[in-house]
Amino acid sequence: MKLFRKGSQGREVxxxxxxxxAAGFLSESSEDAASGTFGDETDRAVRAFxxxxxxxxxxxxxxxxxxxxxxxxRTLGGRYLYLHExxxxxxxxxxxxxRLNSLGFYSGKENGIFNHSxxxxxxxxxxxxxxxxxxxxxxxxxxxxxxLSRVTKPTSVASVRESEKGLPEGGIEGRRIMLxxxxxxxxxxxxxxxxxLRESEVAERIVERLGATLLESQASITxxxxxxxxxxxxxxxxxxxxxxxxxxxxxHLNSSxxxxxxxxxxxxxxxxxxxxxxGYRLANHIQDELVEELDRQDCRTHExxxxxxxxxxxxxxxxxxxxxxxxxxxxxxxxxxxxxxxAACVANAAGKxxxxxxxxxx
Length: 362
Ligand SMILES: [Zn+2]
Description:
By secondary structure, this protein is of the alpha/beta class. The chain folds into three domains: 11-72, Muramoyl-pentapeptide Carboxypeptidase, domain 1 (Orthogonal Bundle); 91-164, PGBD-like superfamily/PGBD (Muramoyl-pentapeptide Carboxypeptidase, domain 1, Orthogonal Bundle), CATH 1.10.101.10; 176-354, 3-Layer(aba) Sandwich (Aminopeptidase). It is built from 14 helices and seven strands. It starts with 10 loop residues before the first helix and ends in an 8-residue tail after the last helix. Bound molecules: zinc ion.
C-alpha cells in the first residue's frame, strides 16, 4: 500500500477522511474534508486516532493504520462472525472476545481477530445459553451476550488464563524465543539518525548480539528476519504463532522531533481493560535492567497494540533502548560496547522472567 501523509491528495485521502469522521476524530465541516487534501487537520486527526488505537502516532497512514481505520468501523451485531480463513477482524470481534472473557468463556487475547479459541468460546457460550452451538455469532447470540454482559462485572479470564498457562519458571534453558529486529532495509530503514544511522541496522546488531548471549544460556533461538530482509508486522506475528515460540523480543529505537529527547522504554500488549500479565512483567524486568545497569533515563513501560504485540498468542515485549534522533544517543548506538551491554540487559531480564521472578511493580 502507498503511504499517505501531510500533502497527499486524491480519492484515497477522501476515503481516509470519511473513516476519521465516522470514528469521531475529524470534523465533517473541516476545510481538509471539504477540499479532500491531507493538511494539518487531517494530520492531527490521524495522530489522535493512532494514539487512541495504541499505534505509533506518526501521522502517516500505512497498512497498519489503514487496517485499524477499517476495523474501527465494525460494531458487534453488524455482521455474522464465524471461523474463517483469513480470520475476520474488527472492533466487533474484540468486543465479542471481551464479553466472552468477562463471562468466563475463554476466547484468548482480547484482540480483534476471530480465531479458533474465539470459535470454541462462542460454542461453549451458546451451549450454556440454550442456543444451537454452531459457533456462528448471529442475532440470537449477540442478544444473549448483551443481556448477560449487563449483569456481570467485567473481569477478564484471558489474563488469568495466560497466567495459568505456560507459567514461566524453571529457567531459560530450552525456552523457544523469537528475536525480531524491527523494520528491514531495503525498503524500510525505520527512523534515520542525523549521522545517517538506520534504526533497522541497529536493531539487527542488537538482535544478533542478544541471540549469541541467549544461546550461551541454552535457550532455543529463532529470528523473524535475517540481516537485510524485510517482513511486515503481521508477517512477523504470523511467523511467531506458526512456530509456537514462548516469547518474542522485538527491538526498535525511539524517535522524537525534539533532538534532546532521550532514554529507554519498553512496550507490552494492552488495550482497554486488558493487559498481557507476562508481557507486563517482562517489560518491567527489561526496563529495570536498562535503567540500572545501562544507566538509561527511565521513559517507563507502556501498553501498546501494534500488530507484533496484539496479533501474537504469546507474551511479546518491544524494546526501545535509546532515541536514534538524539545525537548523543545515536553515537552510543554506533558503539559495539553499548550494543553488547544492551543485549546483556535484555538477556538478564529474560533469565529472571523464565525463573518466575516477579517484577518490582507487581
Ligand atoms: Zn521502529
